Amino acid sequence: MLAGSIALFTDGKDIVVNVTVETLAPCKKLLRVEVDVQTVDAAFENTTKEFQRFAQLPGFRPGKAPRDLVLKSYAGKIEEEVKKKLIPDSYRKALEQEKLKPVVYPDIEEIQFGKGQSLQFAATIETEPEFELPEYKGLEIKREKAVVTDADVERAINTLRDQRATYTDVEREVKTGDYVVVNYTGTSEGKPLTEIAPTAKGLTKQENFWMNIAKDQFIPGFTEQLVGAKKGETVKVTVDFPADFVSQPLAGKKGEYQVTINQVKEKGLPEVNEEFAKSWGAEDLDKLKEGVKNDLQNELNKKQSESLSRQVLQALFAKVSYELPETVVNSETRNLIYNVVNENQRRGVDRDTIETHKDQIFASANTTAKERVKAMFLFHRIAEKEGIKVEQQEVAQQVMAMAEQYQMKPEKLVKELEKNNGFQEIHERILSAKVMDFLQLNAKIEEVAAAS
Question: Residue 273 contacts by C-beta under 8 Å, 6 or more apart in sequence?
């Protein structure tokens, strides 16, 4: 526990603020602050005079009302003004004296306040973590020597062919590689799957559902049992749900399906020629391959950069350990969960499925949040030491790029950002990127062969 006193200059007078600090947790402290009675009374006096200057009371010109009438009419407002000034001022000075850096606005509990008595209040604050900045230059990381090969380009071209595939109805038995359109119902232990796993509606029954007849499609071992069937036939399919199955209540159980073949479709791929190249907006086949190779190289560069960034963080984290402010971690966790849920809903995942996996979503989000918050404090300290700053122009450029990406007018986006603390997020993102670039530039990078 620490104690001390400081001078607070308000309305031209020095006042004494007594401060006691109690550590509740590594990043949580309780400040007890006291402002002497003389200062409180002086603040009341000064504020009363200000109200006298502008008070408008019946029968008196502005500023000419007697003091006792002003006090009677504005007592509540005068008290509120004194409180609004004294508490924030003394709180800020207490932070300066104790060299504390809060990360969120505190919970302030007023213990005593009024004319003729000292002001006493307590503030529970969460502070930035205290740690020794580790050596961050010369971090040892590895970069894989990887190049885009002709085989990589060919695989990418085949992916483009898949996107231009055609599916033709055929009157024959189902073969491996075909697509079938089916109706199915599923049971386990003689009961519909939804009785065991209420959220597994899509696994229990579907109509006109497309399936690719290939290994481990849908449920492992399912589609292979449809080979040899014909349109109009109903096939009994048995499966063993894997131990790590996405619907946990079904994991490790046996399932039985009745599958009716509505259509058998043969997949056709276009030839790789000039016409195919032009369908993708390329002048000719060579230009298409060149564009594909450039895209693959950009993707490879991105993966290498992400790998280096992960290694930098792992190397830094290994050098220092410290507690994190709970409120900041919780806030970041909530943001990540919100983004995950929104993304899943955008992809068509139903709420029941999301609810089933809420524990996994929270655990993953919380782990990521802790890593991000830890990196943020490290990066801030490194930026401060190295003089790395974010210029206003850089923020403006980022906003313009976002406006173009979201197809919004810049001024509308600015309003949205101001409403949601978006500028702070942009500032943090730019600062983190600049510090990461600095760390990679000063790292010891070993070139290694790409993993096969």
Answer: 285
